[in-house]
């Protein structure tokens, strides 16, 4: 459901959030959920479904979360949908294009759980809370995270509608001292100082390129470096020029902290960006980035994404 704001733009109405039960301080003014609380959330979900997912999929903006018919999350069979509002102590989605539910079911034979809607820093959630579902997935038995996102194409050779296999990321928010792993470390999830040089699984990336070739997607498949800014504003020309200089290929507002959280708890990760708009690095250009275009490109590519990701799930499940 959406309402119009004063400018006539469609926005999601604010939802009432459940009262938070916060038990541990992360030493930075924020409170975090304990391992036991996350276990409670996972156990609650396990009572709601018989599906035991091994792959978790995060649907990016407009990529299965908004366009109800034919979207990736709607392709899942034996689907059991659990709205975020019904999950105790779970955040809620506030962004248009992020439906706000977990979908348990199967893609082919493979048991999966899809997040039809993710949480972003700009919604007001601290990074650890944006990433809470990843740890819940881990406790559900998920071994592999497939994080998809909509992103602006900064690499000049990229075109709108291209798919970028993420080879690596630059954690810009981390440079500014903001990290989802900040605070006391619970070794049951992972080590205090996790390595990040193998963030995006090499084998998966090879498979993704092979499958893209088989599906004749060679002309739209790219590989590159993603970075996340806090949002919600899109970037200035000067910011984009700077990001280009340091080797960024695609710019978004998510994924990096999710991947860090997933790697911390030893999940294997695959990242995929849909290039939904061109990053404008020239003051003479009239066009402006906007969320509607992001959602429209998601819709334009939904059939292709559904086919590609379903194939990848099948291949990844064999590794
Ligand atoms: O959830 P993702 O990262 O796919 O969403 C991108 C970033 C912003 O949330 C939004 C901007 O249009 O799309
Ligand atoms: O150009 C962008 N910048 C940041 N986030 C985005 N998400 C989609 N497009 C963009």
From TrEMBL:
It catalyses: inosine + phosphate = alpha-D-ribose 1-phosphate + hypoxanthine; 2'-deoxyguanosine + phosphate = 2-deoxy-alpha-D-ribose 1-phosphate + guanine; guanosine + phosphate = alpha-D-ribose 1-phosphate + guanine; 2'-deoxyinosine + phosphate = 2-deoxy-alpha-D-ribose 1-phosphate + hypoxanthine. Keywords: Glycosyltransferase, Transferase. The keyword Transferase applies. Phosphate binds at residues 61, 98, 118-120, 150, 254. GO terms for cellular component: cytoplasm. InterPro entries: Nucleoside_phosphorylase_d, Nucleoside_phosphorylase_sf, Pur_Nuc_Pase_Ino/Guo-sp, Purine_phosphorylase. It holds the Pfam family PNP_UDP_1. One of its GO terms (molecular function) is purine-nucleoside phosphorylase activity. Residues 55-313 form the Nucleoside phosphorylase domain. Its EC number is 2.4.2.1. Pathway: Purine metabolism; purine nucleoside salvage. It comes from the Eukaryota. It is an enzyme of class 2 (transferase). A purine D-ribonucleoside binds at residues 235, 277. One of its GO terms (biological process) is nucleoside metabolic process. CDD domains: PNP-EcPNPII_like. Belongs to the PNP/MTAP phosphorylase family. The purine nucleoside phosphorylases catalyze the phosphorolytic breakdown of the N-glycosidic bond in the beta-(deoxy)ribonucleoside molecules, with the formation of the corresponding free purine bases and pentose-1-phosphate. This is Purine nucleoside phosphorylase.
